[in-house]
Amino acid sequence: EVQLVESGGGSVQPGESLTLSCVASGFDFSRYDIYWVRQAPGNGLEWVTRIDIGCLETYYTHSVKGRFTVSRDDAKSTLYLQMNDLKPEDTAMYYCSTGWMESGSFIPHYRGHGTQVTVSS
Asked: I need a surface site. Which of 29, 49, 99, 107 has the fewest CB within 10 A?
């Protein structure tokens, strides 16, 4: 059974930091590009960052560049997202996911249940 289990979310004030983790099982994690995506209430899925197989490349959506850092530990089948200088607009449910982009939208394949991040003063 494929599982992706996210953790590390919480409620923080603007400017604070959080580190999200995602532990994968049931598939060969090391052979997939992995995304962090998020969904705010009333919005669709937004891709946040992608880390390629072997950490060869990382990509970030413009709004998080310089604040978020993605990493992976294939030996532990674990994905991380270090989020610094959080802003209220970062409030969303965060998911780790395999998938692909199609016509500007993210199409998930394997996806976890998510971890909530709330940024508010």
From this structure: 107
Length of the chain in residues, anyone?
121
Q: Which residues contact 31 (CB under 8 A, 6 or more apart)?
A: 53
DSSP result, the chain: --EEEEE--EEE-TT--EEEEEEEESS-GGGS-EEEEEE-TT---EEEEEE-GGG--EEE-GGGTTTEEEEEEGGGTEEEEEE-S--GGG-EEEEEEEEEEETTEEEEEEE---EEEEE--
16: which 2 tokens? 């604070």
Comparing CA positions, the residue from 81, 93, 82, 97 lying closest to residue 119 is 93
Report the distance separating Cα 106 and Cα 120, nearest Å. 27
**Whose CA is closest to 46, among 24, 64, 29, 28?**
64
